[in-house]
Amino acid sequence: MPEKKKLPVGIDNFEKIIKNNFYYVDKTEMIHSLIQNWSEVNLITRP
User: Fold this and answer.
1) Residues 6+ apart with CB under 8 A from 46
2) By C-alpha distance, which of 12, 5, 1 is closest to 45?
3) Could you tell me the residue range of the domain that residue 33 belongs to?
4) pTM to 2 decimals?
5) Are residues 11 and 17 in contact, defined by beta-carbon separation less than 8 angstroms?
6) Each residue of 8-47: pLDDT tens digit?
7) Within 13 Å, how many C-alpha atoms sit on residue 40's CB side?
8) How many domains does the chain contain in total?
9) pLDDT, position 15
Protein backbone atom coordinates (compact mmCIF):
# COMPACT_ATOMS: atom_id res chain seq x y z
CA MET A 1 0.00 0.00 0.00
CA PRO A 2 1.44 3.43 -0.92
CA GLU A 3 2.49 5.74 1.88
CA LYS A 4 -0.05 8.46 2.69
CA LYS A 5 1.13 11.98 1.94
CA LYS A 6 1.37 14.42 4.83
CA LEU A 7 -0.35 17.81 4.91
CA PRO A 8 2.06 20.75 4.62
CA VAL A 9 0.92 22.43 7.85
CA GLY A 10 2.95 25.60 8.41
CA ILE A 11 4.96 25.15 5.18
CA ASP A 12 4.59 27.94 2.63
CA ASN A 13 7.54 27.00 0.43
CA PHE A 14 6.47 25.20 -2.77
CA GLU A 15 9.89 23.61 -3.26
CA LYS A 16 9.75 22.05 0.24
CA ILE A 17 6.20 20.79 -0.39
CA ILE A 18 7.24 18.99 -3.58
CA LYS A 19 10.65 17.72 -2.35
CA ASN A 20 9.17 16.30 0.86
CA ASN A 21 6.20 14.67 -0.92
CA PHE A 22 3.51 16.61 0.93
CA TYR A 23 -0.11 16.60 -0.25
CA TYR A 24 -0.65 19.33 -2.85
CA VAL A 25 -3.66 20.34 -4.99
CA ASP A 26 -2.96 22.38 -8.12
CA LYS A 27 -5.84 24.83 -8.61
CA THR A 28 -4.32 26.66 -11.58
CA GLU A 29 -7.24 25.76 -13.86
CA MET A 30 -9.63 27.56 -11.51
CA ILE A 31 -8.03 30.96 -12.24
CA HIS A 32 -10.07 31.45 -15.43
CA SER A 33 -13.33 30.89 -13.55
CA LEU A 34 -12.23 33.24 -10.76
CA ILE A 35 -11.42 36.03 -13.22
CA GLN A 36 -14.69 35.57 -15.14
CA ASN A 37 -16.78 35.61 -11.95
CA TRP A 38 -14.84 38.27 -10.03
CA SER A 39 -16.93 39.96 -7.37
CA GLU A 40 -16.51 42.83 -4.94
CA VAL A 41 -14.97 40.54 -2.32
CA ASN A 42 -12.78 37.53 -3.17
CA LEU A 43 -11.00 35.40 -0.58
CA ILE A 44 -7.78 33.82 -1.83
CA THR A 45 -6.10 31.66 0.80
CA ARG A 46 -2.52 30.47 0.81
CA PRO A 47 -1.38 26.89 1.33
Assistant:
1) 12
2) 12
3) 1-47
4) 0.57
5) yes
6) 999 989 999 999 999 998 888 888 888 888 888 888 776 5
7) 0
8) 1
9) 96
